[in-house]
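Bit of a strange request maybe. I'm writing a small parser for structure token strings and I need a real example to test against, not something I typed by hand. Could someone generate the tokens for this chain?
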Amino acid sequence: MRKSKVFVALSVATITLVALSGCGASAPTFEQIDSAQSLQVESSEKPQVKRVIALANGSAEIISALGLKSLIVGRDIASTDADLKSIPIVTSGHQVIAEKIISMNPDLVIIDKSTGPASALASLKSSGIAVVEIPEAWTLADIPAKVRAVAQSIGTPQSGALLNQEFTRVLQSAKSDSLKKVRVAFLYLRGGRAIYLIGGEGSGADSLMQAIGAVDVGAKRFTQPFTPMTSELMASLNPNLILVMTKGLASVGGVAGLVQLPGIAQTEAGKNKRVIAVDDSLLLSFGPRTPDLISQLSTEVKKVTR
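Reply from user aminoacidic:
Good idea to test on real output. This should exercise your parser:
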């Protein structure tokens, strides 16, 4: 096998900076990260399949990152990398429609434990289609196993190993000692339903903060992923930066609405309107776009808290 070439795309994605008016030594700042570039590898391995429907969360993004997008004939709703725009979404929400998938004549369907309903998966298997379940990824540590499983399922294990090598290399350069005093609170917001939660250990965002060297105040306090937000709790955590998802922030009326929520205005982050919003489908995607996201987060956290 000839030596593989590895191409890493780590260009800065679209970032919107909005300067909010205010007074004091630190200007109120809001940063929004809308997209991130995917890692990419290429190798001479020949895949063992020709038509793949990737229903496992983000599995289509991994196949594309392996340089094999041409194999994908259908994808799940969570694989939102712009490079996959031409690949049809074949689920109804997150629900599998067996008849639709069978009609596309795939020789492999990739699922995870969240894929369903079970009756639809049984129909796929009974029709003779190979159905492979891969592990989910909810933290940075989970990504390598997921990449390996996807690569194995399509018959390109060496390509998967190359992608994991690049993932490790990029993460090693992202951590910054300058951020060790930055206290971040990850908030899950759904204003229409009055759902306001603080991310704790296992929320996923905690592993991102650890990767850049910042402190996730929710993870430091709570061993469970999400805890209802109260005024007293926010005041006691007193983050100097708030991390949210873009749609969640919009659901509470933007930064202006966020600081009206219980306890936010009493925190250092609220007083200075230090907020970073990340696209919903990107923040906790834990796939080949995650290294560039972490690089951007490191840059933007430094900018907001300087």
